[in-house]
What does this fold into?
Amino acid sequence: MARSENAPIRNPGGAPLQGVRVADFTMHAAGPFCAHMLSLLGAQCIKIETAVRPDIFRKPHPVYGRMGAASFDQVASNKLSVQLNLKSPEGVDLAKRIVAVSDIVAESFRPGVMERLGLGYEVLKQVRPGLVMVSISASGQTGPERGYAGYAPLFGAAGGLGTLTGYEDGPPTEIRHVMDHSTGLTAAMGTLAAYLRKQRTGLGQHVDVAAREVACGFIGDALLQYAATGTAPRRMGNDMPQIAPHNTYACAGEDAWVAIVVETDAQWRAFSTVLQRSDWLADTRYATAASRWTHRRELDAAVGAWTRERSREEVTQVLQAAGVAAFPSYTAQDIVDDPHMRERGAIKTMTSPQGETRSVVGPPWRFSRSPAALERWTPALGEHNDYVFGELLGLSRARIEELVATKVIY
It folds into this structure.
């Protein structure tokens, strides 16, 4: 088990969370994305996993045209990986030793699982006084539905987001990947807040994040509308009340689309001028935002006829030059090839120790003094066993080999 050449073990100096260590027990997407965000801020994140029950996204199976899931590569990169069989008492003991040298614990099992493993917050805060622990689940650590299973589409359904998403004559459209990432990002924010308080007071705490409540937070305006009027808003497709045009429109080319929003009267005048439709400015049907909304379907047809004769890039350029919001509906390939994203480092190219290259999503922040970074390739299962168990925890080579042979490190 020689140490990997997969980039430095220690994080680059100067990152905001330099010196912070995270014991990462998360699986699937939401929890791992939380820990991934912390790693991008410079925290050393140790992913604790096992060959007994590998993360479903690490399991080799054909997806996206490759044997490994891209979703795992995204949320596991920048982390260290160790193997521990948590069904073994010795494995649990080693997990506690990792927690003892960590500042933050992240987990995303169903409520009660960490307690059954002997790794609940009440136990771990004795192991590491001042510990900040974040638990990410579908419905939270308390309540009658705490044990419910949940995946991304269910988060939006339970949180009321799905019923607002889709067309008015169609069923609810349950948002998928974005719910996992939104939950993970919210959990990272809560974790940082708890860690900041710990730095000020010395007191750690348990952060309980329910994915369905994250989704519910996205529909606060709908809840207020219902409270005020007794009428719940319904699905509207791409419509936005009192704003028109507000839609995506087909452009020249295969499956090419552009999003256009005209919000103010000044933008409406500029938009009409670009489309050479001076008649619209004299048409009483379009004189106000409310009247344009009433006649939005006629507007959509006319705008669509104009965009279909032009590329999405041309539409974007001429409208943006006039001060009207417009942008192509990008595919993943478009984003990878976008020079603006490349220049900002939002998309970068990484090369593995074996010479494989791929485009990756960089940190979504820019710090003037303490840069965040994506530095490490996706770790192999247990790639950093030697570093964590040997250098960090001080186990001898003989002891590590014994634990491997008895499938504690497994």
In short: The chain has two domains: 21-218+350-405, 246-329. The two ends are 13 Å apart (CA to CA).
